[in-house]
Amino acid sequence: MRIILFGPPGSGKGTQAKLLAEKFHIPHISTGDLLREAVTKQSTIGLKAKGYLDAGALVPDDIMIGLIREVVAGGVAKDGFILDGFPRTIPQAEALDRLFGELGIQLDGVVSLRVEHDEVVRRLTDRRVCRSCGRIFNSSQLRKDDPAKCPQCGGELFQRSDDTFATAQKRLEVYVRDTKPLKDFYRLTGRFTQIDGMRDISNVYEEVVALLHKGQPPSKSK
Length: 222
Known about the structure:
Strand content: 5-15%
Shape: globular
CATH architecture of the domain at 2-115 and 177-214: 3-Layer(aba) Sandwich
Oligomer: single chain
Strand order of the largest sheet: 2-3-1-4-8
Number of strands: 8
CATH topology of the domain at 2-115 and 177-214: Rossmann fold
């Protein structure tokens, strides 16, 4: 099972990716995590990436492709993978297709979670992160008597700096701008399916699993 998972920030794609990774026993490849891990390990690619990150610049596509190559060509991804956070542009998608062709990898499909813009902003501004265990919660999951305390471990909850209203709107604008061409790119090759991400986690998960079990169906709505 080799899929790319799309979704705006706050769509729940990270949660779905983790559930699917457990279900199919395949790695969840988050490019953000890959970058952080490579920098921490001070690998050759990690050291290159660190220079760009320290300068506040975008990490070049060839470095990102190199990071993905290391994972998908390794034994951990021999039975498949879920790619999250990449590609973000048409050139990246084309480079990824070339990499897959070189490695003899067949992409099973691209799944996109559709969430209304107002709901994306609401979810982002509503979520809180635990400083201790790293779990993410929304306000309905918090303790009524102490909403600043993590329901899981009792740690301090905080709002990420990129989850403010203004930043959430900006992130959404960037996502819409960058990913619409990508959706069209994958739709034209018959690899794209969009599902309703407005429902609860279990319903979205069940539809994605059913979709993957029966194979990629014809392209759906934009």
